[in-house]
Write the structure tokens for this entry.
Amino acid sequence: MPEKKTFRITHNRKWCKDCGICVAVCPKKVYEIDRSDRHAIVNPQNCIGCRMCVEHCPDFALTVEEAKNE
Amino acid sequence: MRLDLLRSERLPNIWCPGCGNGIVLRALLEAIDQLQLDPDNVVLVSGIGCSSRAPAYTAFDNVHSLHGRAIPVATGIKLANPDLTVIVVTGDGDSSAIGGNHLIHAARRDVDITVVVFNNYNYGMTGGQASPLTPTSSITTTTPNGMLDRPFDLVKLAAGAGATYVARSGIYFAKHLVDHLKKAIAHDGFSLVDAVAQCPTYFGRFNRKGSAGQMVTSQKDWMVLKSVAEKKTPEELAGKVIIGEFVNIERHAPVSAAAPKEQA
């Protein structure tokens, strides 16, 4: 059985404006706008690497790379 | 998208949280990257408006021109150096109201430039006034009881004026948008892409469209692919916006070929 791919999400705090588009487009609920209205990565292990958040981030704040675990 | 196509020292951008302009800009940079264009041979020209701030965040040479006058500046750049890839970044008001005449005549002349319209259905920079693309009965600062007039269909306008490539896409369909931007930039002749974005600060708030995230994901409810729309009745398509490629024809023959000079 092929090993499950894992992805590393990097978030640029300085560019992010906490708009919540990544929360709306993510199919796996990886992100959340927390109680202080700030962007938070809550379930990074659920990421399937579809890059919907990367394509829809207006502030270029997110990148998703496949993690190489060797 | 390569992050080195951005001027990182200029970011974060000035747009409001949740503005769609950044998503269109990313798609445009992605298209330029996928076409493997030399960044030194790409020129971005913009007018005035929220969208027209976009070229300043890119590493390409750019001109931030007058309101509505981006297309004449781009025409001049293309005439001076036809080897350059000239892309006009403009908003819905900038292209259809103040620059409406320039748009139709550039399409008529079939100048080899690409116009990318960041369409957020209002004038965002000055406080959410109605533009010629604002849908009927929408509330804006200048139409507090609802827009009375019908909007332009920018796709039909450009096609009627003689553009040889016209497409429309929405930011929710990011790959669709990148594909059509790629085709438009590679197209020989006047090409226009109407990229429908959202303005959560004004248009979305006045018309109760919800948060920026809801405005982005709701595009899949009110947008229909052209291939799907062809099978539907006009009643089913009421209130929907059709996306896809509308015109893709050969460039008109140059005048010099049609009327050769008389032999001396």
Summary: DSSP finds eleven helices and ten strands in chain B. Strands of chain B lie at 42-46, 61-64, 85-91, 114-119, 122-123, 129-130, 165-170, 191-196, 223-225, 241-248.
